[in-house]
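Query structure, 220 tokens:
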């Protein structure tokens, strides 16, 4: 049950409200909505904030990070236009929620985070859910995963000053990267980058607010 919600609200009612909220905020792709219906966000939110798991808001998780609000997860996934045979890189595993949704849409998901604890805890949830097409790494995501490149899609869940060059280079021709860009956590734009034969096309989608993309490994 969400905070302030009806104590008698059933799981089905809560799910209907959750999906209605996504649609009302612009998530209209049927495949994305179906994936988000199947992946229970409640499994990725722990501790005091567990009761807020179905609210459309970012929530704190371990290592000073956040789980993004569901509508932003949906809009980023929708913008990536993921196809069933796509190989996808996610930079910023966090709780693992975004990667779990991607796993129902693409063929192979690689997710990387600088915090070992987050990778470990997310991997435990992936295993519980039987999501066998996700491989999680502890590494500096700003450099991508050169050994697994190129990727059909790249989703970055932390804000960079500019789209990182190493990630752009690991995108296939025709591939799409969705990344929040901006120096200040109060002024960021969600950018869709499409790699063409002769360069990159950039489309600004909406304003967002993400934790910063930091180089190096975390202490946990």
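Result returned for the query:
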């Amino acid at each position: 049950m969400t905070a302030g919600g009806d104590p008698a609200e059933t799981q089905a009612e809560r799910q209907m409200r959750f999906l209605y909220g996504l649609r009302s905020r612009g998530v209209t792709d049927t495949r994305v909505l179906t994936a988000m219906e199947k992946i229970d966000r409640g499994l990725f939110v722990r501790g005091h904030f567990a009761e807020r798991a179905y609210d459309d808001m970012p929530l704190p998780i371990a290592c000073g990070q956040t789980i993004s609000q569901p509508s932003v997860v949906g809009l980023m996934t929708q913008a990536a236009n993921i196809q069933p045979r796509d190989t996808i890189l996610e930079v910023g595993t966090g709780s693992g929620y975004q990667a779990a949704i991607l796993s129902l849409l693409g063929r192979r998901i690689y997710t990387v985070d600088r915090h070992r604890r987050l990778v470990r805890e997310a991997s435990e949830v992936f295993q519980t859910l039987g999501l066998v097409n996700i491989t999680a790494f502890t590494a500096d995501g700003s450099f991508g995963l050169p050994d697994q490149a190129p990727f059909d899609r790249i989703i970055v869940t932390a804000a960079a000053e500019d789209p990182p060059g190493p990630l752009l280079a690991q995108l296939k021709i025709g591939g799409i990267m969705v990344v929040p860009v901006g120096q200040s956590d109060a002024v960021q734009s969600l950018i869709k980058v499409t790699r063409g034969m002769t360069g990159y096309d950039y489309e600004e989608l909406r304003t967002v607010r993400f934790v910063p993309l930091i180089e190096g490994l975390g202490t946990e």
